[in-house]
Design a protein that fits this description.
single chain; 298 residues; alpha/beta; Rossmann fold; N-(1-d-carboxylethyl)-l-norvaline Dehydrogenase, domain 2; 2 domains; three-stranded mixed β-sheet; 9 strands; elongated
Length: 298
């Protein structure tokens, strides 16, 4: 049987993800704080819901894609939340990026009502969401993952069952640690080149041919040289993800000395008024400190 799917949170990632599910033939009920993406999906054949509870009542599987841990908790357990109307045997899939420990607690609370939960954060950004090529890292019971997999296949191209509840969020924390660290490293390399009087665009071209080559160097490196900082993925959200990484590391007594410095740089974007820029704009802090502008150097 085709699962009835509910989707809560239709931002730059959630809206195209929901559209892929609709295109795959799933009866879709949608809810979001902003009306335009709901209107657009309803125009394509989805059903509108006014609360998360209404989504749950109309769905076999409820997917959430919202900004932060408190948002997920509110959607699931707040007034008119999913838990109030989720039926026995239904499945919640949280595709947000949130705290792994809180994720496990959410799964335990839902299980009391015989509702399973999969945590399935994604990587690939807006481009991957629109193309249906996201990397999906999932945590939760085997049976629940098997049930969710056909839905994941409509939204992503790399789907990995990482482990039990919370494991998907741990994998996403690792993902953000690596990506944000790489963005900072690329920015530092470009500014070093500029300070030495060497064209950073030529440095990028040379590095792309060797072991330093990466998607971050290719895509975000180009953004840095062009100052093309329209998100993408906002610096404020990456700073939030940085807090999740640091909190998880503190709770597990895991050393992350390099990333702690990067997390501080991400936080510095907010008082600088750059939280709405793509996180590739981390390089602008370095430019300010070095007194260079990569656009003039490349």
């Amino acid at each position: 049987m085709t699962e009835r799917v509910g989707f809560i949170g239709l931002g730059v990632m959630g809206a195209p993800m929901a559209r892929h599910l609709l295109a795959a033939g799933h009866p879709l009920t949608v809810h979001s704080r902003s009306a335009p993406p709901v209107d657009a999906l309803v125009g394509d054949g989805a059903r509108r819901a006014t609360t998360p509870a209404e989504v749950a009542a109309a769905s076999d599987v409820i997917i959430t894609m919202v900004p932060d841990t408190p948002d997920v908790e509110l959607v699931l357990f707040g007034e008119a939340g999913v838990a109030q109307e989720a039926t026995t045997g239904s499945l919640v899939i949280d595709m947000s990026t949130i705290d792994p420990i809180r994720t496990r607690a959410f799964a335990e609370r839902l299980a009391l009502g015989d509702v399973a939960m999969i945590d399935a954060p994604v990587s690939g950004g807006q481009v991957g969401a629109e193309a249906g090529t996201l990397s999906i890292m999932a945590g939760g019971p085997d049976e629940a993952f098997a049930r969710a997999r056909p839905l994941f296949e409509a939204m992503g191209s790399t789907i990995v069952h990482v482990g039990p509840s919370g494991a998907g969020q741990v994998a996403k924390a690792c993902n953000q640690l690596v990506i944000a660290s790489a963005v900072e490293a690329v920015g530092e390399a470009f500014v070093l080149a500029a300070k030495a009087g060497v064209d950073p665009a030529k440095v990028r071209e040379a590095l792309l041919g060797g072991f330093a080559s990466s998607k971050v160097l290719d895509l975000h490196g180009r953004r840095m040289l062009d100052h093309a900082f329209d998100p993408g993925f906002r610096s404020a959200l990456m700073a939030k993800d940085g807090r999740i990484v640091v909190s998880a590391a503190d709770g597990l007594d895991a050393p992350i000395p390099g990333f702690r410095a990067v997390a501080e740089r991400l936080e510095a974007m907010l008082p600088a008024g750059r939280g709405d820029l793509d996180y590739a704009a981390l390089v602008t802090l370095l430019e300010d400190e070095a007194g260079v502008d990569l656009r003039a150097e490349s």
